Amino acid sequence: MKALVLAAGKGTRLKPLTNTVPKHILPVGDKPVLFHVLNYVKEAGIKDIGIVVSPESGPYIEEAIGTGSEWGGQITFIVQHEPLGLAHAVKVAKGFLGDSPFLMLLGDNLVQEGVKDFLDEFHTSSSDASILLKEVPDPRAFGVAELDPSGKVIHMVEKPQKPKSNLAIIGVYLFTAEIHKAIAQIKPSWRGELEITDAIQKLLEMGKVIRSHLLQGWWLDIGSNDGLIEANRVVLDAFLERDIKGKVDKQSSIVGRVEIGEATEIENSLVQGPVFIAANCRIKNSLVKPFTNIRAETVVEDSSLERSVILENCQILKIKHLANSVVGKNTKLTGQDKDPGEACTEQSRRIRLFIGDDCKVEL
Questions:
Q1: What contacts 107, CB < 8 A, 6 or more positions away?
Q2: Burial label, 222 (beta-carbon count in 10 A; 0-12, 13-18, 19+)
Q3: Regarding predicted confidence, which is higher, 152 or 359?
Q4: What pLDDT does residue 24 have?
Q5: 8 A C-beta contact, residue 328 and residue 309
Q6: What is the pLDDT of residues 316-355, one digit of tens each?
Q7: Pairing state of beta strands 282-284 and 299-301?
Q8: What does the buried/exposed string (b/e) look like for 145-181 if buried means 16 or more CB atoms within 10 Å of the residue's CB?
Q9: CATH 3.90.550.10 at 2-235, yes or no
Q10: What are phi and psi of 79, to 5 degrees?
Q11: For the chain, what are the domain ranges?
Q12: pTM (predicted TM-score)
């Protein structure tokens, strides 16, 4: 069994952040989203991992992953030169995959349950493919599966206007080598892409057995600014533990589950968890409210933050109430002289920003 992780997407809905960094290495909780996905693979016991990257994202992702020893296996990077669909990514990776069965995951989607049970179920079945499904209120934005009473897939369609079920395909798949034969027989969709849903439908037409597994827990797609903020909220709430490695002075208060990295200093501030603050930060005369993720080397002074993601080496100075925001690395935000405690009660004056790297903003 091999794993194929897809990390070649351009992340257009996350611009301007993704003008300078691939979405797959944006932080969710204490680590990049791609690292969470690789942890699923490790927990499933798969050691031969291929990661599909684009020419643009590849160098960043390779640098972030390094040798890959953290995941206990061998990592192979596969370049998809054009974004021509998920089935095209499988086609590009054929040399790596060979005739092995494989687990395929999107590198920017998270699932609460991981994938081990999904994989174990596949091993005990005689199916040629299995797909992970999630009930959603409006499935029109997704690939949709129809099942028979036993849970076998009987039909697949991509983004139907009139869906016949509410079972969305959420980007986790298991395939045997039969999928390569199916991909060879499909044509590009109206989007000009080789759709994996078309390939799975072709498997059905070939008489192959496709089973499904219904996800009971949460599913997170970080493909948008709001998706990144929500993923951080859910992951911080679910997994963060209290761990104070930095220095907290006597005038400060740390409430609840807060992780503070080494060499970080908290001065005359209130931090209300769940909050993650990485190493080498300084928080002074400020209020940091729940579901905030502050990355390394960042300074926050005379400010209030809530439910926001602040990337590395930022300066947040005199910002009254920054909420539901994403701030790119090496960015400086400067506001007016206000009392941050007073600002937090003024809901109508919340500031919401989506800013890329290397910006200077005066408010």
A1: 5, 6, 7, 9, 24, 33, 34, 37, 51
A2: buried
A3: 359
A4: 95
A5: no
A6: 999 989 999 999 999 999 998 755 555 445 444 789 999 9
A7: parallel
A8: bebeeeeebeebbbeeeebeeebbbbbbbbbbebbbe
A9: yes
A10: -90, 125
A11: 2-235, 241-362
A12: 0.91
Q: Which CATH class is domain 241-362?
A: mainly beta
DSSP letter assigned to residue 81: S
Closest of 237, 300, 296 to residue 269, by C-alpha: 300
**Residue 312 token pair:** 């590395």
Q: pLDDT by residue (tens digit) across 288-322?
A: 999 999 999 999 999 999 999 999 999 999 998 99
The helix (run of H) or strand (run of E) holding residue 317 is strand 315-317
How far from the centroid of its chain's Cα atoms is residue 271's Cα? 25
Residue range 178-191: mean pLDDT, rounded: 94
**Structure token digits, residue 339:** 């009392």
Instruction: Sort residue 157 into left (φ over 0), alpha (ψ -120 to 50) or beta.
Output: beta
pLDDT digits (tens, 9 = 90+) for 95-140: 999 999 999 999 999 998 888 888 888 888 888 999 999 998 888 8
**Is it true that the peptide bond before 16 is cis, omega within 30 degrees of 0?**
yes
CA angle 351, 354, 358 (to 5 degrees): 115
| 213 close to 123: Cβ distance less than 8 angstroms | no
What count of other Cβ atoms lies within 10 Å of the Cβ of residue 100?
A: 12
Give me the residues paired with residue 322 across strands: 305, 351
Smallest Cα–Cα separation from 30: which of 249, 215, 218, 257? Answer: 257
**Percent share of the chain, pLDDT over 70:** 97
Q: Which of 93, 91, 90, 105 is nearest to 44 (CA)?
A: 105
SS3 124: coil
State the Cα–Cα distance between residues 103 and 130, nearest whole angstrom. 9
Give the N- to C-terminal CA distance of the chain in Å, as an integer.
53
Give the whole-angstrom CA distance, residue 13 versus residue 81: 20
CA distances in angstroms from 69 to 65, 108, 267, listed in the order given: 9, 21, 37
